[in-house]
Amino acid sequence: MMADPSSRKVAVVTGGARGIGRGCADALARAGYDIALVDVLVPEMQRTAGEIRAVGRDCLTLEADVSLYQRAHEVVAEVHKTFGHIDVLLNNAGRSMPKGILEITEAEFDSTIAVDLKSCFNYIQAVAPVMLAQGGGRIVSMSSLNAHSGGVTAAVSRFAYAAAKAGILGMTRALAKELGPTILINAICPGLIETELAKNPVIVNRGAEIARDGIALHRVGRPADIAQLVVFLATSEPCFITGQDFVVDGFQYNM
């Protein structure tokens, strides 16, 4: 039995099945939010949904390719119909792209932009009317340290990913002006983050070396490090922060 819709806080998390998205969804649930998870990884999404329900929050799971414009609008409509309102959108879904300019295909470039950047447009455009009508909302989009660094040395992803993630920063600044003062919108730029799958080859092959010689805090990040900031941006009252990007990397240097 779901709680009274007027009393619940609701967060939509794209790419919420695993990794940073999973950590952020769990943290938002513990902060009192019911969660709508959006992902293509159905078994992993159901696992995360079980964790959310275990802490006493409702969870809606929606299978969706975030690059698809119409599907984003369908997802937001279903969330709004189920819960009655949407307080937070976390644009977390993304994919890596390790190929350089001389080897990447046009289709691979287009796919990287579609998943990493266009998806933010898809979901922000879908959710903005809901938040404006209800008188408030928070949007957080996951960019990357690569948006600042270019990510061409030790990074998993190269120029196409960096371009998409830099686009998120421009979108965030522009939409903070367009959607303010009703909707607050910010971006987060994670550095090297170790997820539960530990498939990041940089972490597997060079994690200890980078932590020792290239990160001031002498460790790689964890999803909880990002989730802590997401919860702050979602819940802080009063909040005088919008149009900003926050680097969370333990001060990563010498990369």
Please tag this protein with its features.
alpha/beta, 7 strands, 255 residues
Quick description:
The protein has 255 residues and is an alpha/beta fold. It is 47% helix and 16% strand.
Tally of strands:
7
Helical proportion? 40-55%
* Gyration radius over CA: 17 Å
How many strands, which pairing sense, and closed or not: the largest β-sheet? 7 strands, parallel
Mean pLDDT: 92
The helix-strand sequence is: EHEHEHEHEHHEHHE
* Percentage of residues in DSSP E strands: 15-25%
Number of helices: 8
Describe the strand arrangement of the main beta sheet, using strand numbers.
Answer: 3-2-1-4-5-6-7
Notes on the protein architecture:
With 255 residues, the protein is α/β, with parallel strands linked by helices. 47% of the residues lie in helices and 16% in strands. The chain has 8 helices and 7 strands, in the order E-H-E-H-E-H-E-H-E-H-H-E-H-H-E. The chain has helices spanning 19-30, 42-54, 69-83, 106-134, 146-149, 159-179, 201-214, 223-235, and strands spanning 9-14, 33-39, 59-63, 88-91, 137-142, 183-190, 245-248. Strands 3-2-1-4-5-6-7 form a 7-stranded parallel β-sheet, sandwiched between helices. Helix 4 links the parallel strand 4 and strand 5 (137-142). Helix 1 packs across helix 8 (223-235) and helix 3 (69-83) packs parallel to helix 4 (106-134). The longest helix has 29 residues, at 106-134. The termini are far apart. 46% of the residues are buried.
